């Protein structure tokens, strides 16, 4: 996963930058180390509804009801207007291709409606692989792939700009791709091979934004450049595909430093461009909107409201401009969005006279989030949103507008009533999963950005929304008392407390009466013992600094430090004996155990794998002292004496995460579920015989990139498994 590319000099010198071309059918067969044939599994989303940053929405200009969406870490989607839902297009990307789940840009061909192009790559750092371009002739049902020799940054600053990928308006075989650090690339064979575009004036920077947008205005291609200081040119154009020039008269200054997005009104022949003083989505405090009359070459500023004023409470009203879209049916009708406007809340402005006057759609907006209640964020009603850089206007319906936020997609068909247009799109980054043995819910989840959810139904967004009292931005810990499942505790990042407990299985919550002072700055994993009488809370700062764990025996009323607990380790409660806790010290490769309810820990087995790799210690349900250690490099280890001794499990070569579920009929041990590798293929496996043999249960259409955070089976339904993904929400599978 840490591939390196060629030198920047080679790319800019015009060398071909396509490393390989691969055809990806709907399903690819692989040989793997599992001895059993894979059963047929049905895979579905656990419905939450969005919960991630939608960075782009693109209506097809030639097909009614067809649209595409891209996300920063969760892949791309196609909108089916008849079914009113999104279809995931990149779930086939597997473990080794996790970096390709960030979508940098997408493009459609107006002359060939079946064609779709995606530019993929999440990060540009040295420790990740290069980007890739996927191209489809059937709207993303199947793909051909070209691996690039440059990196793309779909989850880096500037991910809401664009699109950076464009089909040339003069020739459908020619494509343009703007990169962050390697200039402008060009393909003359529909994306099969790529080379540096000759004559493009932008000078690549190792730390800059590079090309921020590509847009066609008639037969002319415009390119935004994100590395200007506010005085030099940042918008270029070419009329013939070879000679580029800076656009004359373009705006300058701080408020027009970075071109964010652009849209061309073919009815008035005007190009609208939004600007900001930083690429965003964070860090913007100034911006503007300008339009260029492409015939007369005259620029006009049409900024709806200039940043820098004050709100009613005296706060500074700083923000920038993000999305822009034009009405294909009504000349001079255009919408733009603000971005990073925290004091007065972001909005979408609409003009019907070419930007001379504007109306804020926020002022009359009525929201219905009954389908995704978490969007209230613990308040009485939702807000208009934030991080609004994706903005689209349906070319076949002038009143159908869609905009993306950091958590969802909102849509309207009458300019007043808004609701999430998000069915089928799940982008949550998932941290913890619990499948309770009893109760209404089969699943409780701990999530990035949206805290903890209680899933009464797997097919509907939780009716209670985010767990409140307090609300967490992101969950860091989640634990249920094995012998008292009505008692659940959680930890996370919050403004009004960082720990909470529930006495009704996770339906309602109350904050701990007190918390250690370090909890505000470093909330980490938390565990409750089997009967819910003892809590162990670990503290780890976001920068990796580890602090001593704390213990409570009075439901969080008081806390004491546990010096013998290894800093940063995740506490594991014995599911049968309330006096026992366990921990794995990854620094020394040592198992530790407590027999006094977590007051002290003593060393057990030593000499186990250590270092900065991936480890997970889990306890088998209903059994005392039955521990499994999952390791990325060395596979599985097992202890049946509470960590005193450990035996290597020979059936696996690597295990990233391990969980348990209901035993198979006639089996005397719970089913095991693993993301790992019995042989050469990292995939999802099940064992019904205590890890003697493994069966792969996912297929090549259902891989979801990196899925190594956590996995658990359902203790009430044999064969059902829940998988945490990093950007595709919670996936659950059942034998078909």
UniProtKB/TrEMBL annotation:
One of its GO terms (biological process) is polysaccharide catabolic process. The keyword Flavoprotein does not apply. It comes from the Bacteria. One of its GO terms (molecular function) is hydrolase activity, acting on glycosyl bonds. Gene3D superfamilies: YVTN repeat-like/Quinoprotein amine dehydrogenase (2.130.10.10). Coiled coil: none annotated. Keywords: Carbohydrate metabolism, Glycosidase, Hydrolase, Polysaccharide degradation, Signal. The keyword Signal applies. Belongs to the glycosyl hydrolase 74 family. PANTHER family: OLIGOXYLOGLUCAN-REDUCING END-SPECIFIC XYLOGLUCANASE-RELATED, XYLOGLUCANASE (EUROFUNG). This is Endo-1,4-beta-glucanase. It comes from Streptomyces lincolnensis.
């Amino acid at each position: 996963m840490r591939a390196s590319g060629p030198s920047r000099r080679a790319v800019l010198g015009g060398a071909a930058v396509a490393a390989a071309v691969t055809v990806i059918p709907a399903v690819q067969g692989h040989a793997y180390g599992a001895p059993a044939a894979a059963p047929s599994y049905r895979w579905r989303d656990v419905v939450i509804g969005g919960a991630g940053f939608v960075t782009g929405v693109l209506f097809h200009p030639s097909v009614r009801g067809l649209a595409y969406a891209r996300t920063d870490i969760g892949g791309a989607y196609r909108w089916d207007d008849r079914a009113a839902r999104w279809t995931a297009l990149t779930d086939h990307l597997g473990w080794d291709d996790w970096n390709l789940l960030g979508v940098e840009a997408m493009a459609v061909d107006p002359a060939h409606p079946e064609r779709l192009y995606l530019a993929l790559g999440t990060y540009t750092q040295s420790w990740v692989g290069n980007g890739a371009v996927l191209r489809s002739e059937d709207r993303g049902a199947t793909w051909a792939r070209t691996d690039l020799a440059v990196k793309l940054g779909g989850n880096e600053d500037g991910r809401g700009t664009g699109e950076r990928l464009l089909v040339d308006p003069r020739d459908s075989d020619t494509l343009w791709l703007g990169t962050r650090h390697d200039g402008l690339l060009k393909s003359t064979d529909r994306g099969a091979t790529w080379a540096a575009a000759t004559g493009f004036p932008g000078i690549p920077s190792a730390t800059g934004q590079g090309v921020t947008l590509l847009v066609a205005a008639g037969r002319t291609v415009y390119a935004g450049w994100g590395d200007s200081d506010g005085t030099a040119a940042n918008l270029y154009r070419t009329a013939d595909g070879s000679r580029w020039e800076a656009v004359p008269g373009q705006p300058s200054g701080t408020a027009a430093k970075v071109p964010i997005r652009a849209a061309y009104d073919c009815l008035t022949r005007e190009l609208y461009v939004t600007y900001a003083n930083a690429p965003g989505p964070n860090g913007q405090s100034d911006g503007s909107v300008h339009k260029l009359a492409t015939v007369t070459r005259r620029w006009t500023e049409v900024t709806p409201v200039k940043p820098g004023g004050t709100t009613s409470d005296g706060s500074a009203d700083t923000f920038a401009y993000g999305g822009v879209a034009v009405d294909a049916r009504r000349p001079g009708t255009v919408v733009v969005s603000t971005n990073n406007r925290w004091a007065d809340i972001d909005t979408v402005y609409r003009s019907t006279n070419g930007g001379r006057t504007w109306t804020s759609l926020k002022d009359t907006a009525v929201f219905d989030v009954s389908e995704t209640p978490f969007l209230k964020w613990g308040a009485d009603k939702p807000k208009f949103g934030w991080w609004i850089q994706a903005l689209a206007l349906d070319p076949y319906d002038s009143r159908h507008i869609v905009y993306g936020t950091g958590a969802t997609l909102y849509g309207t068909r009458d300019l007043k009533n808004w609701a999430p247009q998000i069915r089928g799109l799940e982008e949550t980054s998932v941290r913890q999963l619990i499948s309770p043995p009893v109760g209404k819910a089969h699943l409780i989840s701990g999530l990035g950005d949206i805290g903890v959810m209680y899933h009464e139904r797997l097919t509907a967004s939780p009716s209670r929304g985010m767990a409140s009292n307090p609300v967490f931005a992101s969950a860091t810990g989640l634990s249920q008392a094995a012998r008292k499942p009505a008692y659940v505790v959680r930890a996370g990042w919050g403004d009004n407390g960082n720990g909470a407990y529930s006495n009704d299985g996770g339906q309602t919550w109350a904050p701990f009466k007190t918390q250690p002072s370090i909890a505000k700055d470093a909330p980490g994993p938390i565990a409750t013992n089997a009967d819910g009488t003892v809590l162990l809370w670990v503290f780890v700062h976001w920068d990796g600094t580890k602090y001593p764990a704390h213990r409570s025996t009075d439901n969080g009323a008081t806390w004491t430090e546990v010096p013998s607990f290894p800093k940063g380790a995740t506490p594991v409660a014995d599911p049968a004996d309330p006096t026992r806790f366990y921990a794995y010290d990854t620094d020394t490769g040592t198992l530790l155990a407590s027999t006094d309810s977590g007051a002290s820990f003593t060393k057990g087995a030593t000499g186990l794998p250590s270092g900065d790799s991936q480890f997970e210690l889990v306890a088998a349900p209903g059994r005392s002292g039955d521990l499994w250690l999952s390791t990325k490099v060395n596979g599985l280890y097992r202890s049946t004496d509470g960590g005193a001794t450990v035996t290597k499990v020979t059936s696996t070569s690597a295990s990233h995460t391990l969980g348990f579920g209901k035993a198979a009929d006639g089996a005397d041990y719970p089913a095991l579920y693993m993301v790992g590798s019995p042989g050469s293929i990292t995939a999802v496996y099940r064992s019904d015989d205590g890890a003697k043999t493994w069966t792969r249960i996912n297929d090549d259409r259902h891989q979801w990139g990196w899925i190594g955070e956590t996995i658990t089976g359902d203790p009430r339904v044999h064969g059902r498994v829940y998988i945490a993904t990093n950007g595709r929400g919670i996936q659950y599978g059942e034998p078909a």
